[in-house]
Design brief:
heterodimer, A: MetI-like fold, 12 helices, B: mainly alpha, MetI-like fold, 10 helices, elongated
Chain lengths: ~300, ~270
């Protein structure tokens, strides 16, 4: 069946991710083969015995041809087998199961904080366009968007944990440990959200239906919340969906800075230990989550605006 | 007057950093000279930004870090622009199967959020300047390809393109002489933002230990070292962080100005 024959756009969108997922699988599979020289040598180091090497080579299936390796890689993945860590010999699936909830927690909290800061700030900026409130909001969002996580994170650590002593420096022992990494992740997104909300609102504010709402005698509050914001929300949803992915990527650095035991930190640790099967699995899991998030954003988008049709 | 100055400020900041790069090429600041008596000494008249954890001058290392940062950003931008634009033009010009194939490939690359793929490539290739550039090139051509392709599609059936085609102009001639000049403006704006992104990406990879290796100076690695001594010597991490921020902010603002000047509607990806 050709994809053109399928009428339901929802199903079409679902099927559309199949080639993408397949491509992601190929690319992550090939990662290990990009290692210059002998991957086994690189992973085990020079001190390893030849027996160890032969064993690892067999474990990774490196003796077979590339297509055969890919097929067995897919076969194992389909039953949730990501292989095992070279150093600790633990199954990678259990490592991921342990770390993924932490990253999800962090990303979701960051997303909520970003919305709580960015949306109101964008609305305030748009309603006060070109006066000092707007300019302050713009400066705030510009400054934050120029602060990468590995700079904002330490800065917050320095101020809130070391100088003021309000929050724990790093780790995850206390319940308040999540606040600083979540804020670090959130601020960049809040900055983008502020700018997007402002721009989107400014476009809608001069539409006819807004003037109609005003002339009906509705309060300013009702006009903004019920009419303007609702119409302005669409581009904001798109940006949020795309940016949730950047939260996942940003989590790699933020988790490393704050010693937060998520997938991002697992990735960095695995790179340092040259535990490439773990690296491969982390990259795959983050990329696939991103694909799924984007899919859901598109679906939400169609629900939020009946005019939008998936092509 | 004040407004004028503020408007030009981003350009001044960029020129300042460009100047430091030129000066660092002409003058050896001894960024790797270790002075054990001066470990983490705070800023003073002899060393404007103080010393780092090995007693090396922060100012000298900062300037050398700026050089690496701008070198990487420039080289990667040139390579990825050439490749991405060519791919985008071909995809948009031929359309059909070629276009679908190219779009599938870019879809796959875009499935990896942000810097993730660059981290993965840098991890398997190993650290070092060359591999850092390769890793960033592999991931950042996609933006140019998508942008060029979208524009090229709309230019494909313009009269002057059809005219050139029917007069027997070769495909490269049509692509680069008749189509490229018309889509140069959005590409220039995209390139400006992407340079800021690359400076952050280079610093991120170096921060994770995947980029420039010690003892060579880079902003990312300096930040990582600085964080460790944040409590006793905040001058170190502050100097590097503020420098990085000033450069990225300046380039982003220049991008905004350029966009307004060229009157382009750039949609956020």
């Amino acid at each position: 069946m050709k994809s053109a024959d399928i009428k339901n756009p929802m199903i079409k969108r679902f099927l559309g991710i199949i080639p993408v997922v397949f491509g992601v699988l190929i690319l992550t599979f090939l990662l290990v083969h990009l290692i210059p020289g002998d991957p086994v040598e690189v992973m085990l180091g020079e001190s390893a015995t030849s027996a160890d090497r032969t064993q690892l080579r067999a474990e990774l299936g490196l003796n077979h041809s590339l297509p055969a390796q890919f097929v067995s890689y897919l076969g194992k993945l389909s039953v949730g087998d990501f292989g095992q860590s070279i150093h600790t010999k633990t199954p990678i699936s259990s490592l991921l199961a342990e770390r993924l909830p932490n990253t999800a927690k962090l990303a979701l909290l960051a997303l909520m904080i970003a919305i709580a800061i960015g949306l109101p700030l964008g609305v305030i900026a748009a309603l006060n366009a070109d006066n000092w409130l707007d300019k302050t909001a713009t400066v705030f969002s510009l400054t934050l968007s120029a602060m990468p996580h590995f700079w904002l994170g330490p800065l917050m650590m320095m101020v809130f944990a070391l100088w003021l002593g309000w929050l724990p420096v790093s780790g995850m022992e206390s319940a308040t440990s999540i606040i600083l990494p979540a804020l670090t992740l959130a601020f960049g997104l809040a900055a983008i959200l502020t700018r997007m909300t402002r721009a989107s609102l400014l476009e809608v504010l001069h539409e006819d239906f807004v003037r109609t709402a005003h002339s009906k005698g509705l309060t300013e509050y009702t006009v903004i919340i019920r009419h303007v914001l609702r119409a302005a929300l669409l581009p904001i949803i798109t940006v949020l969906g795309l940016q949730l992915g950047s939260l996942l990527a940003g989590a790699v650095i933020t988790e490393t800075v704050f010693s937060w035991d998520g997938v991002g930190r697992l990735l960095v640790e695995s790179i340092e230990k040259r535990d490439y099967p773990v690296t491969q699995a982390c990259v795959l899991v983050v990329a696939l989550s991103y694909v799924v998030i984007n899919l859901f954003t598109d679906l939400i988008y169609t629900q939020a605006d009946p005019r939008v049709k998936l092509v | 007057m004040m407004q004028r100055f503020l408007y030009c400020l981003p350009l001044f900041v960029l020129l300042f950093w460009a100047l430091t790069v030129v000066v660092s090429l002409l003058w050896d600041f001894h960024p790797n000279t270790i002075n054990l008596q001066k470990i983490l000494v705070t800023p003073n008249l002899h060393a404007l930004l103080g010393y780092d954890d090995l007693g090396r001058e922060v100012f000298a290392r900062l300037i050398n870090g700026a050089r690496v940062s701008m070198l990487v950003a420039t080289v990667v931008t040139i390579i990825t622009m050439l490749f991405g634009i060519t791919v985008g033009l071909i995809s948009g010009f031929y359309g059909g199967k070629v276009d679908r194939f190219v779009m599938h490939i870019t879809d796959v690359f875009m499935a990896f959020p942000g810097i993730l793929l660059a981290i993965a490539f840098a991890a398997v290739l190993g650290a070092g300047l060359g591999n850092l550039i390769i890793a960033l090139c592999m991931t950042s051509w996609v933006g140019y390809a998508r942008l060029t392709r979208a524009q090229a599609l709309s230019l494909r059936n313009r009269q002057h393109v059809l005219a050139a085609e029917s007069l027997g102009a070769s495909v490269p001639r049509i692509l680069f002489k008749h189509m490229l000049p018309l889509l140069a403006a959005p590409l220039v704006v995209e390139a400006t933002y992407s340079i800021a992104g690359l400076i952050i990406a280079e610093a991120s990879l170096s921060f994770l230990g995947l980029g420039i290796q010690a003892p060579k100076a880079s902003w990312g690695a300096m930040l990582r070292d600085g964080v460790r001594y944040m409590l006793v010597a905040p001058h170190y991490v502050l100097a590097v962080g503020l420098s990085l921020m000033s450069l990225v902010l300046a380039i982003n603002l220049l991008g905004d100005q350029l966009r307004d000047y060229l009157d382009i509607k750039v949609t956020i990806k």
